[in-house]
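Subgroup meeting minutes
Present: P.N., E.W., G.H.
Scribe: E.W.

1. P.N. recapped why we're keeping a running log of single-chain structure predictions: easier to compare across weeks, and new members can see raw inputs and outputs side by side.
2. G.H. added today's entry (220 aa).
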Amino acid sequence: MEVAAAAAPAVRCALRRCRAGLRGRWASPAGGVPLRLCSTRVTLEGINKPVIDRIIRVDHAGEYGANRIYAGQMAVLGRSSVGPVIQQMWNQEKDHLKKFNELMVAYRVRPTVLLPFWNVAGFVLGAGSALLGKKGAMACTVAVEESISDHYNSQIRTLIEEDPEKYKELLQVIKQFRDDEWEHHDIGLEYDAEAAPAYSILKTAIQLGCKAAIFLSERI
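Output recorded in log:
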């Protein structure tokens, strides 16, 4: 499929870095604790593989979808006054997706088969909300980022219950990304998301869609 073909170079690049044993550093856009690009020391022995597979698969799908949402918003509002703000958030999502591409390789997790659907649905959601105006785009950001932050919190609790030391690196990544997503949520509110037309209805509808996307991407 076109999406799989587009993603393949990034995955192959991550694989080459892991195999070569590079020990690069990934600095979070929010200025948090630097994270390793990929761990050459990840061992699958003793981990709860079904749980880790679900976590990494759905997070990869979520970050992929977020990238497509911001791409859609930029297609409509890229030259507006909020264009630079949207671009800044999109840049962070690009870094998130890059990290999960690497984790997919390190933990040997297959992507969800729904990536082609999220490719289209994410862009349509982003562009559609932007067509409602700047406030509509920010309302979409608030709804999506709140859902992702809540989901990341649930994953953090799961990993802590499993073994916080064993999953230390993954916990560090998820905590940092959760903080980034919540920052995006707050930016959306700062830019008058709540003043968007039918804000409550729009937010509820988008978050229901997010819950369905999470449920499906964890499993298939």
